[in-house]
Write a structure and sequence with these properties.
Helix content: 40-55%
Catalytic activity: alpha-D-glucose 1-phosphate + UTP + H(+) = UDP-alpha-D-glucose + diphosphate
Order of helices and strands: EEEHEHHEHHEEHEEEHEHHEEHH
Strand order of the largest sheet: 8-11-9-10-12
Strand content: 25-35%
Largest sheet: 5 strands, mixed, barrel
Pfam family, one: NTP_transferase
EC number: 2.7.7.9
Organism: Pontibacter saemangeumensis
Number of helices: 11
Structural class: alpha/beta
Shape: globular
Domain Nucleotidyl transferase: 5-262
Distance between the termini: 63 Å
Radius of gyration: 20 Å
Number of strands: 13
């Protein structure tokens, strides 16, 4: 199974980032990437996909946003060419933007009918092929120097010829933010599970009863990482839910049905995900990217300085 297409869902308006997301698409907000350059969030996510072998990209967006993305990226490229003629890093960056512009497509979600519906909007683009699914408000940092988080997931999916979702062992007080699952670890394959049960944002009491996974540390559960590889079978399942109730189509019930019908694995990805929409999520993601990349020393120095300033204010 070869995965050459990716879908990024970016149709939500970003209420949790109000009021800034009311003036600019949240996926276009800048952050310093591991290469030390300021980039729009969605460019960083796209480069995660391209670095993992993806050849075609579809962004599921709100009506009219596709043209805004194209205009913004074209403007970024033109400004780099005009302002930094002959500068090596600027040339490399414009090449990346040209690659993005040549490979990106858009699928509009006409109404906000749920995350499952947003994924379904990419069906025509996927065209009966397996695909990588990424969230437009998550950034990922791998713990492996030469292997991105998406690469880890794609390799397992291609090897096992099935859908695979990335997961992270997550401490119990945070599981109410994520889809949470349990399953049986594959013999001889640490960190790989056959998914059995999935519950969206469970309470701790429910998780204790239904989602314990043998082998995990006490108080930890397997939570979605915000990254999946799916076979096209997911669209047939989503289609049934849309026909039954088109008002709020969640992805999690469809994934539970997929787990019951097909081989569907979870992989403990060696890395971390950062939800930009949660409170202080942007700050956390920026610190993580800074520490993981070329701005490591500057980031560490800035953190130490801030902690020293905060401590001095307490002592006054």
């Amino acid at each position: 199974m070869r995965i050459k297409k990716a879908v990024i869902t970016a149709a939500a308006r970003g209420e949790r980032l109000y009021p800034v997301a009311d003036t600019i698409q949240k996926a276009m907000l800048p952050i310093i990437d591991i290469d030390g350059l300021h980039k729009p969030v969605i460019q960083i996510i796209a480069e995660e996909a391209f670095a993992s072998g993806i050849e075609e990209l579809c962004v599921v967006c709100a009506p009219g946003d596709g043209e805004r993305y194209l205009s913004a990226f074209a403007s970024l490229r033109d400004n780099l060419l005009r302002s930094y003629k002959g500068v090596d890093w600027a040339k490399e960056e414009t090449d990346k933007l040209d690659l993005l512009l040549s490979r990106i497509q858009f699928a509009e979600q006409q109404e906000a009918l749920g995350y499952g519906h947003a994924v379904y909007c990419a069906r025509e683009f996927v065209n009966n092929e397996p695909f990588l699914l990424l969230l437009g408000d998550y950034l990922y940092v791998s713990n492996l120097l030469q292997k991105r988080c998406a690469t880890q997931l794609i390799e397992l999916s291609a090897q096992e010829n099935c859908s695979v979702s990335a997961v992270n062992p997550t401490i119990e007080h945070q599981i109410g933010r994520y889809g949470t699952l349990t399953g049986k670890q594959l013999p001889g394959n640490a960190g790989i599970y056959q998914i059995e049960k999935i519950i969206e944002k469970p309470s701790l009491s429910v998780a204790e009863l239904e989602l314990q996974t043998p082998g995990l540390r006490v108080g930890y559960y397997l939570c979605f990482f915000g990254m999946h590889v799916f076979t096209p079978a997911i669209f047939d399942i989503l289609e049934k839910y849309i026909a039954r109730d088109g008002s709020n189509i969640l992805l999690t019930p469809a994934l539970q049905e997929l787990a019951e019908a097909d081989k569907y694995l979870a992989l403990e990805v060696k890395g971390n995900r950062y939800d930009l929409s949660k409170k202080l999520g942007w700050l956390q993601a920026q610190i993580a990217l800074g520490l993981a990349g070329q701005a490591h020393d500057e980031t560490l120095t800035a953190m130490v300085d801030l902690l020293a300033e905060a401590n001095s204010r307490k002592s006054v």
